[in-house]
Specification:
- It is a single chain.
- The chain is mainly α and 85 residues long.
- The chain is built from three helices and no strands.
Length: 85
């Protein structure tokens, strides 16, 4: 969970840095997203019911689409770069 929250804030900060108007409110929003998402994870994992297992699955449901998108973007970049022959 720490990894996905850090990656989200890092990616968001790189986006917010390019758009100066969004810097302050965007930085605050990224911090709030990270805190709320991590808090939900903590509450689910510490529960005594079956929701505990949902808490363990929550990071995977976030990592899988992110990794898929990264792999897809790397493949698209490789297709765009054509070797000189």
């Amino acid at each position: 969970m720490h990894g996905i929250c850090t990656a989200t804030v890092g990616y968001g900060m790189s986006f917010v840095k390019k758009h100066k108007k969004l810097f302050y409110c965007g930085t605050f929003a990224l911090l709030m997203i990270s805190i709320i998402y991590h808090g939900i994870f903590n509450m689910l994992v510490q529960s005594d019911s079956w929701l505990k297992y949902l808490g363990f699955v929550l990071p995977l449901t976030t990592y899988i689409p992110v990794v898929y998108k990264l792999i897809k973007s790397v493949r698209n970049k490789k297709k765009e770069v054509q070797p000189l022959s």
